[in-house]
Amino acid sequence: MDVQHIILLADSNIQNCSQLKYDIEYALPYTVIESHSGFEALRIALEKKPDLILLDSMLSGINGYDLARQIKISPDIRTARILLMVPENERDKRLEAIESGADEIIMKPVEKTEMIFRVESLIRIKYFYDQLLLEREKIHKMKEEFLSLITHDLKTPLTSIIGNIQILLLNHQSEKDKNSLKTIDLASRNLLFLVNNLLNVMRIDSGNMPLAAENFLFKRLVEEVFSMMQPLAQKKKIVLKFSGENSIMVHGDFEKVRQVLINLISNAIKFSPEEESVEINAKEEEKGVVIQVIDQGSGISETDKQRLFQKFSQRKGEKGGTGLGLYIAKKMIDMHGSEIHVDSKPGQGAAFWFVLQKGKKK
Ligand SMILES: Nc1ncnc2c1ncn2[C@@H]1O[C@H](COP(=O)(O)OP(=O)(O)OP(=O)(O)O)[C@@H](O)[C@H]1O
Ligand SMILES: [Mg+2]
Description:
Order of helices and strands: EHEHEHEHEHHEHEEHEEHHEE
Number of domains: 3
CATH class of the largest domain: Alpha Beta
CATH superfamily of the largest domain: Histidine kinase-like ATPase, C-terminal domain
Structural class: alpha/beta
Helix content: 40-55%
Shape: elongated
Number of strands: 12
Largest sheet: 7 strands, mixed
Bound molecules: adenosine-5'-triphosphate, magnesium ion
């Protein structure tokens, strides 16, 4: 703790104040600044940002309780520890002292040794608190850097790899080359899928994800999602079907709804046996457009349903994946002011569904 700690002492009784300053500075290696009114104490606190403020409850100008409240709502100094000195005959005001934001109370007349111990312990707490804040800031910075690393150094090249594989696949290749290219394509898509999910979780958790709602043709989104998911479906000979009306318009954030559908379809494919079908349905109802992703796969038990949408939640023994897909889907649908649900019984497939606002027809 080799930092210079500052203590602000606020007591309208000048004699008491200088005695306390003397006692603390004699016993501890801290700098003590005196002040004799509430206003003066607040001014010095804002200027010097002390680690600890020793307040007399009966300060003139602003009393100790009100000053404590003021300090706790001032962004620059609210982390300062507060030790409130309360006279014996105001013992019943201890509750008010705690409610006002004081970290500790000490009875007056102040017992010197007790005061020294309390000051020392509050300074220690403030020191560790500051360290924690610094660590948090560092972690936040690292998270931001990691986020930009994922976006630029992983996502961009991956997208380019996938794009170029499509060009190679279009050119005439031998069957053997085509199969290898398809394997690379699938692996790259899975990697891009994971990168996108990580990126989304970090954005959601840092609150850095505004909603950009627009009116769009739902079928257009389905086509994009199907073309993205086709290689994964083909690998298991699964057919992707759209069973809604082609003209349905939706009002929502295109990118986010796309991510939701990708996550739901990826699950539907993953948890279905080979040669089944996965269906997206969209229906206009009174409350909005009901969108469903339906599969004929393993289904989900009632107990598993409770935890499904939590972060990192997977069924026991689940292999692969991170357990983030449904957490992200739920958060993104929440952002639309809606909810995501699942209807399912074990062994009878699953239908995940949510409602979005109807979009204006163009
Ligand atoms: N359509 C489904 N049928 C059966 N179980 C499902 C279905 N969708 C999700 N689950 C269950 O819910 C769990 C959580 O799904 P979620 O998408 O969040 O994670 P994941 O698919 O395991 O991993 P990730 O999506 O991060 O790759 C899955 O592990 C699975 O147990
Ligand atoms: Mg998933």
